[in-house]
Amino acid sequence: MKLLEVHVIQTVAPSNLNRDDTGSPKDALFGGYRRARISSQAQKRAVRVAFRDWPLLSAEERAVRTRRLLDALLEKLSDIPQEQARLAVENALNTLGFGFKEGRTEYLLFLGNRELTRLAGLIRDNLEKLNAGPAKGKKSAEVDPELKRSLERILDGGKAVDLALFGRMLADRPELGVDAAAQVAHALSTHKVDREFDFYTAVDDLNPKEDTGAGMMGDVEFYSATMYRYAVVNLDQLVTNLQGDVDLSIKGALAFLEAFALTLPSGKQNSFAAYNPPLFLACRAGEGLPRNLATAFERPLWPQDGKSLSALSVEALVREWDKFDRAYGSLEKERKGAVNLTETEVKGIPLVDGLESLKQEVEKALRELLALGG
Fold first, then answer.
1. Alpha carbons 177 and 8: distance in angstroms, whole number
2. Of all residues in the chain, what percent carry a pLDDT higher than 90?
3. pLDDT at 209
4. Distances (CA, A) of 104 to 66, 67, 70, 108, 218
5. For the chain, how big is the Rg over CA atoms in Å?
């Protein structure tokens, strides 16, 4: 497969970016030792938020994940009497196999903004047909067969980049799903970690002078870690999901690279402000099999020789990369590059001075792979 890989070494100061159900920072056993962990789901959410908030993609090139689909469509049909519009929307969505509970769809749906606009347009154009009978639920919906086919044709992904990257699963209509083009690994620390506790108190500003007790107290768990983060984009799948639009696929892959590199989940940032960008960011593009290099850290790193854990992590990562290349070969038409802000001297990977330069090199590689050289 044609692919783009992103490898990141990132040292994060004391933080609790991604919590479990008890409020503790997530962790995992790896190589027999407890490691800091950030889930893939949380990283993907951070990327989608960046797509929304940064000028990487237009609104039409994005999707929305929601159970409030009914409200979103009614807003687009606000010029139609509400009862009439609501019945039409419910009948249309029931026809597509989506049920409701208390005005919300039964589960989160991931729809492109273009899909939403086209769905509202089709409902508007078929208002009379979709008001012919009461809404009977997803298993008893009755509409004209041709209208049903038209509704189903709308759910083609809408050329939404985030939907194309992260995919869509529709439990009731699996044939309308979209296979994800991007895979994101759980980030792991390159070394062993132990959770720590921050005990805190808060002072009541209006306490009389003689009352010296705290207004409240509590504790929060945290750790600091040097993380290895990895993601891969299946470029063939991305182009398929974006209906053969190579330029949009390249734009989407570059947007993913930037957003993945520069974002992390935001848990407890008001308390920790652990805004630490990557110290090492590498990309590999070409044709072949993806290669997660987490095994470089199966044996946890320990501070040594006065070197930082980030520098030692980069050394281990580059050694692992070279080891696999010698054993299994590199990618076909391989292009790679990296930004290195650690004191480690990196050999075998062309270095650039920053993210913009790296994106330019990646764009050249993707154009060769997908369009001009594909």
1. 30
2. 87
3. 85
4. 9, 5, 7, 9, 37
5. 25
Question: Which pLDDT belongs to residue 373?
Answer: 45
Q: In a 3-state reduction of DSSP, which class is residue 150? A: helix
Read off the pLDDT band of 374 (50, 70, 90). very low
Which residues on adjacent β-strands are paired with residue 216?
202
149 Cα distance to chain centroid: 31
Mean pLDDT of the residues in the chain: 94
Query: What 3-state DSSP class applies to 215?
Result: coil
The pLDDT tens digits for 327-339 are 999 999 999 999 9
Q: What pTM was estimated for this model as a whole?
A: 0.94
Residue 305, classified by CB atoms within 10 Å of its CB into exposed (0-12), middle (13-18) or buried (19+), is exposed
Nearest alpha carbon to residue 110 among 56, 171, 55, 57: 171
Per-residue HEC secondary structure of 240-295 comes to HHCCCCHHHHHHHHHHHHHHHHHCCCCCCHHHHCCCCCCCEEEEEEEECCCCCCHH
Do 86 and 70 contact (CB within 8 A), yes or no? yes
Whether residue 69 contacts residue 98, with contact meaning beta carbons closer than 8 Å, is answered with yes
CA distance 235 to 307: 37
Assigned token pair, 285: 């593009």
Residue located via tokens 């409902």: 123
Tell me which residue of 153, 146, 145 sits closest to 173, measured CA to CA.
153
Longest distance between any two alpha carbons in the chain, whole Å: 79
CA 277 to centroid of chain Cα atoms:
17
pLDDT in tens, 96-142: 999 888 889 999 999 999 999 999 999 999 999 999 887 777 777 77
Which two structure tokens, joined as six digits, stand for 150?
């038209």
| Tens-place pLDDT, residues 7-24 | 999 999 999 999 999 999
